[in-house]
Write a structure and sequence with these properties.
Solute-binding protein family 5 domain-containing protein; signal; single chain; 265 residues; 37% helix; transport; alpha+beta; SBP_5_dom; six-stranded mixed sheet
C-alpha cells in the first residue's frame, strides 16, 4: 500500500513490514494567477517567492521527506535542472520592499485554493499562509473538491492555487504545457517571450549539453519571474508485508511488476 510521509517513521520500526521508495514524481508549487492584479506584477510574484521558506514547507507538509525546490521546476539531479539554489531561506525584508515598490506597503488579501482531500497539500497551504502573513499578505485558504479546482483554474477563477506537477520523461512536455502561451496547463496565461524562445530553440537542439543549458536558462526565468513558486519534490513510499517478494518501488506509479509478485509462505 502507499503510505503517507507522516507514517513512515512508525512503519519503518515495524519488523513485519518492508518499505520501498524515497524518490518522488510530483513537484509541489504555489501557482499565481498572472492574468489578474496584483499577480501580474513581477515584483509581487518575486516578493512571494522570497517570502517562502521551502525547507520549512517540506518539513511540515511532508515530514521532511523529499527535496526542497530552491530553484526551478526540475529537481537538481534531473536533466536540464539548475544545480545551484536561487532561493535559500525566506528574505522577509527584501520581500516587503518589493511589495512596497509595487504599491502594496501593507500587503493585500488573497485566497489560496487547495484540493481538500490532499492532506499534504493542505498542510503546504497552511504553512504558506503563515509565511506570507509575515510580509502582509493575508491569505484565506479555500479547500475544494478536485473537480471544482479543475473548473476554477481553467476559467481563471483563482488568486493562488496550491498544486503539483508530475515529472515528465522529457522536460519539454512540462515546460511547454504549463508555461508556454496557449499551453493547456498554463492556468493564468503567463507569457514571457524570452522563455518561449528558449523552449522553442531547445526542441530542435540535438546536442544534449547545449539543450540542457537552454533549459537551465529557462529555469532561471521561471525562478525569477515565472507564475509559480516551486516548493518541494515529494517522496513516494510503499509498504508491504515481509513475505511479499518481487516488489519494486515505483514513483511513476505504473506497478507493471505486479505480475511478478509472489508470497514466501
Amino acid at each position: 500500500m502507499a503510505a503517507g510521509p507522516e507514517f513512515i517513521d512508525a512503519l519503518k520500526a515495524d519488523e513485519a513490514l518492508k518499505w520501498y521508495g524515497g524518490s518522488g514524481s510530483l513537484s509541489l508549487h504555489l501557482r499565481l494567477n498572472t492574468s489578474k492584479a496584483p499577480y501580474d506584477d513581477v515584483r509581487v510574484r518575486q516578493a512571494i517567492f522570497l517570502a517562502l521558506d521551502r525547507q520549512e514547507i517540506l518539513n511540515v507538509a511532508n515530514s521532511g521527506y523529499g527535496t526542497a525546490l530552491n530553484a526551478g521546476y526540475l529537481p537538481p539531479d534531473r536533466f536540464g535542472a539548475l544545480t545551484q539554489p536561487v532561493y535559500g531561506g525566506a528574505d522577509i525584508e527584501k520581500a516587503k520592499a518589493l511589495l512596497a515598490e509595487a504599491g502594496h506597503p501593507d500587503g493585500f488579501e488573497a485566497t489560496l485554493m487547495v484540493i481538500a482531500t490532499s492532506a499534504f497539500q493542505v498542510r503546504s497551504a497552511e504553512v504558506e499562509q503563515q509565511q506570507l502573513a509575515k510580509i502582509g499578505i493575508k491569505v484565506t485558504i479555500e479547500s475544494v473538491e478536485a473537480s471544482i479546482a479543475d473548473t476554477k483554474t481553467k476559467s481563471g477563477e483563482f488568486d493562488m492555487y496550491q498544486s503539483g506537477f508530475g515529472l515528465t520523461y522529457d522536460p519539454d512536455e512540462r515546460f511547454s504545457a504549463s508555461f508556454l502561451k496557449g499551453g493547456g496547463l498554463n492556468y493564468g496565461n503567463w507569457h514571457d517571450a524570452e522563455y518561449e524562445a528558449l523552449i522553442v530553440q531547445a526542441r530542435s537542439e540535438l546536442d544534449r549539453e547545449k539543450r540542457a543549458a537552454l533549459y537551465q536558462q529557462a529555469e532561471t526565468i521561471l525562478a525569477d519571474r515565472g507564475p509559480v513558486a516551486m516548493t518541494f519534490l515529494n517522496a513516494d513510499f510503499d509498504v508491504v508485508k515481509k513475505d511479499v517478494m518481487g516488489y519494486k518501488g515505483d514513483p511513476t506509479p505504473t506497478y507493471r511488476f505486479y505480475r511478478h509478485l509472489w508470497l514466501d509462505r
